[in-house]
Design a protein that fits this description.
Layout: H1 28-31, H2 36-47, H3 52-62, E1 66-69, E2 72-75, E3 78-82, E4 114-116
Parallel strand pairs: 3-4
Antiparallel strand pairs: 1-2, 2-3
Length: about 120
């Protein structure tokens, strides 16, 4: 079980600074998609975001059911280490099937359980 973060550690005031927040939810399809290209795009947006760590921390606390949060892909409240395209995997991996690696901050690594899909 994950240890809860204190209210001092988790504060949602950072939300207005997030790159994914445009007020119109125009990026929702990218951050909550099953397509590898969309997931890669969402992770790339997160990688350049100033509040990526706060977003990831909040997602861990809330046990987000799915989507890209803080540069990590969540499913059923856990971070997925890998994800592959539906169906039979190709004999030679396609370059577009690789997701960007975004490291988990050191202070959150003990709170994370990685899964593979």
């Amino acid at each position: 079980m994950l240890a809860p973060l204190s209210s001092e550690q988790f504060d949602e005031e950072w939300w207005d600074e997030a790159q994914c927040r445009d007020g119109e939810a125009s990026l929702s399809g990218v951050f909550f998609s099953e397509e590898l290209q969309d997931i890669a795009r969402a992770k790339s947006i997160c990688a350049e975001c100033a509040v990526m760590n706060e977003c990831l921390e909040g997602a861990i606390v809330r046990r987000e059911p799915w989507g890209v949060w803080g540069g990590q892909l969540f499913l059923n409240g856990k971070i997925l280490a890998t994800k592959r395209r539906r169906g039979r995997p190709p004999k030679t991996p396609r370059p577009e099937d690789f997701l960007p690696e975004i490291p988990i901050p050191v202070h959150l690594q003990d709170r994370v359980r990685l899964r593979t899909a």
